[in-house]
Amino acid sequence: MSLPASILKDTFGYDSYRPLQREVIENVLARRDTLAVMPTGGGKSLCYQIPALMFDGLTVVISPLIALMKDQVEQLRAFGVPSLFLNSSLSPQEYQENMEYVKRGEVKLLYVAPETLLAPRILALLDSVKVDCLTIDEAHCISEWGHDFRPEYRQLIEVRKRFPKAVCMALTATATSRVRQDIRASLKFATTNEFVASFNRDNLFIEVAKKSDPTLQAVKMLDRYKDQSGIIYCFSRKQVDELAAYLLSKGYSVRPYHAGLEDAQRARNQEAFIRDDVQIIVATIAFGMGINKPNVRFVIHFDLPKSIEGYYQEIGRAGRDGLPAHCLLLYSYGDVAKLNYFIEQKEGEEKRVAVQHLNAIVRYAEDETTCRRKPLLDYFGESYQADNCSSCDNCTSAPAELVDITVFAQKFLSCVKRADEKFGAGHIVDILLGSKNEKIIRWEHEKLSTYGIGKELTKKQWMHLARQLLMTGYLSQEGEYHTLSLTAKAIEALKKRGVIFGVIQEAERVRKDGKKKEDVEYNQELFGLLRQKRKDLADVAGVPPYVIFSDRTLVEISTYYPQSMESLLKISGVGQVKLRQYGDPFLEIITQFCEKNNLKEYVHPLTVPQQNRLPSSRSKRVGAEEIGERTRVIADAYNAGATIQSLMELYHVVQGTILEHLTKYILAGNTLRNGDDLKEMSAASVEQQKTAFAAFDELSPALLKPVFEKLNGTLNYDQLRTLRLLYLISRQS
Ligand code: ADP
Ligand code: ZN
C-alpha cells in the first residue's frame, strides 16, 4: 500500500478514494500547485489533509468561515490529527498558546481566516517555521466573477509569493469556467493542474412534486425519515415561522432559521441542528452556508427556488456522507406568479437576469420526462449521459402498465348501448356510478341493467377509460354533445368476448417508492442504539455527533455486526485513533445487541454465505412471502425462456430493474435457470468473473458497494448486478 493510501485507511478509516481525490493528492505531493473543483460533499478536505500528514512542515489552510474552521479542527482531532485554528473567536491567551504550538512545530494543519493570515505577527510566525503547503479553501472568493467575492482573498496572491517553496492548493465547489480561469490566473496555476470532478451527486434522489397540500407533503417526508435530519426551505420568513410553529405543535423536533431572528437565537437553532438535538430546520435560504453536517437525509423546497444554481446548492447540503438522501421540490404555478411579482419590482439588467433564472427553474420543474440530472448538470456545463439515473422521479416513475380491462370495457360499452347511443361519456359514467341526478331520473336511467354497476372506479378513471376506448376505435363520438356510439369493432368484441388491454389510471402519478437501488439495508434498531451512544459521547466531548462517527459508519456497523476491535477497524470511517477512543463503548453495544438477537458477525466470512447467512435485515425483507407479484411474474417468464432484453422491453424498464427482481427471487429461496444471456451481458472476462465471485464469497452478495470498492471500481454496478445473479445461480442447490 502506498503511504497516502495507508493514511486514508489508518487515520481516516476509509477504504477507497472518492473520484479525483487520489489524482489531486498525488499532484500536490509532486509539489505542483493544484486547483481542485469538486461538488459539496465531494471530499475536498481529504485532498489537503492527507498531503499535510505526509509533509514534514506545516500546512496552512485559509478558510473564510470561523464556524467551518472549528468544525474541521474538531473532526481532525477526533481522527488524531494535530491541528488548530487562529481566529477572532479565541481569547488572547488561547491565541498565544496556539501560536506557541505552531512555533514548536507540533501542529500539522493550521486553519486561519484570510485577514488573520495578513496580520504581520502571523506572517512573522509563519516565516519562522517551514510551510509546506498553502491551501486556499473556498477559492472562488478570490474571483470577482464568483457569487461570493471577498477582497481579502485577492491579497492572498502576495502571501503566496512570500512562501514560494510551499505548494499551493485551491479548492472550490464553484464550477463555472470563468471563475476557475480567474482563480488559476490570479494564483498563476497551470491549466494542467486543474482537476474538476463531476457535479453529479448520485446518492441524491431528486424529485419534483405538484404542490397540492404542501404541509401534508412535508409531514409525509418527515414521517418517512423519522428521527433523521432534514432541512425545509421556504420563501419567506413568515412562512418559516408558520410552518415551524405548526410542526412544533404536532410534536416534531424542529426550529426556525431566518435573518429576522436575533443572532443568538439563530446561532442556537443552528447549533441544535448540527448537534442532533433538533432534527429539522425550517429556514429561508439564509441557512446553510458554513454548515458541514454530513447526515442531512432530506431537503424540501416548500416554495420554488429563484434559480437552478441556488436550488442545486441547497439540495447539495443533503447526503454529504454519501448515503442516500431525498430532495423534494414542491412546485405550483402560484409560486411562479409570486416570484414574478417580486421580479417586477426590479429593473434593467438585474430584472433580466432574474427572469432568465426563473424561466430556467420553471422549465426544470415542469419537465415530467427528462432525467432531472440532465438539465441540472447541463446548467453547470456538464453533460449527463446515462439514459436512466434510477434516482430521480422522472427516471423511476412507473410506466403506465397495460392491464386486462375487458370487464370495464364491457360495462362501459354495454351501457352506451343500453342508453341507446344518445349520450356523452359524462352521462354514461353517471349511470355506471349509480348517480341520482336529474338527468338520470328524467330519462329513467336508474332502471337500466347497467345502472350502478361501475362503482369500483372513480368518475375520473371512467372518463379516462372512455377516452381510451375512443382512441382505440371501440367508440365513435359525434355532434355537439359528443354523443357516443359503438363501432363495428366494439360490437364484435362484445359478441366474441375478446380480451381488451388498456390502462386504469391512478389518482396520482404513480412513482416507485423513490428508494434508490443502492439503498443500504441495515438493522435500524441497532443503528438507533449506536446513534444514542454517539450522541452521549458527543455531548460529553462537546462536539457534534458526526465528529465521533458518521452515519455511514453506524450504518455499516448495523449491517455487518463487527464484534471485535479487528472487525471494527474494517468499517468505513474507523481509523486507529477512533478505534482506540471509541471502540470499547460501541463494541459493548454491538455485542450485547447481537447476543440478545442471536446475530452473528457478518464480516469477511471465509466460506460461501448461504442465504440464511445474509444480514438479518436483508433476509427478513426478502423472505419468500414478501416477493412482490411483479418479481414472481418476471422470474416465471425468465424461467420459461424469456430473455432479460425482452423483459426490459416488455416492462419498459432498465436492465438493472429486471436483474433486481431476479436477484430478489433467488434470494428468497427460489430457483432460477442458468441463462446464457446473463453471461454475455456481464461483459466480464473469465478472470474478472472469478475475482468478482471471490469478492462475493468474501464479502457476501448482500451489498454491492463493498464489492464495488474491493474491486476498485473495475466493474460497474450493472456488471456487478449481473455477476451477482450468476454467482447466486451457481450456488443454487
Ligand atoms: P467537501 O468539502 O467537498 O464538501 P468534505 O471534505 O467535507 O466534502 O467531505 C464530505 C464527507 O465525506 C465527510 O464526512 C468526509 O469525511 C467524507 N469523505 C471524504 N472522503 C472520503 C472517502 N474517500 N471515503 C469515505 N468518506 C469520505
Ligand atoms: Zn434521472
Name the CATH superfamily classification of the largest domain.
Answer: P-loop containing nucleotide triphosphate hydrolases
Determine and state the CATH class of the largest domain. Alpha Beta
Q: Tell me the fraction of residues in β-strands, as a range.
A: 5-15%
**Derived structural class:** alpha/beta
The radius of gyration computed from the alpha-carbon positions, rounded to a whole number of angstroms, is 30 Å
- Order of the strands making up the biggest sheet: 3-4-2-5-6-1-7
Structure commentary:
Residues 507-520 and 603-625 have low confidence and may be disordered. The protein has five domains: 3-196, Rossmann fold (3-Layer(aba) Sandwich); 204-379, P-loop containing nucleotide triphosphate hydrolases (Rossmann fold); 403-502, Winged helix-like DNA-binding domain superfamily/Winged helix DNA-binding domain (Arc Repressor Mutant, subunit A, Orthogonal Bundle); 524-612, DNA polymerase, domain 1, CATH 1.10.150.80; 624-630 and 638-730, Arc Repressor Mutant, subunit A (Orthogonal Bundle). 49% of the residues lie in helices and 11% in strands. The protein is an alpha/beta fold and 733 residues long. The strands form four sheets. Strands 3-4-2-5-6-1-7 form a seven-stranded parallel β-sheet, with helices on both faces. A six-stranded parallel β-sheet has the order 8-13-12-9-11-10, sandwiched between helices. The structure holds adenosine-5'-diphosphate (ADP) and zinc ion. Zinc ion (ZN) binds next to helix 18.
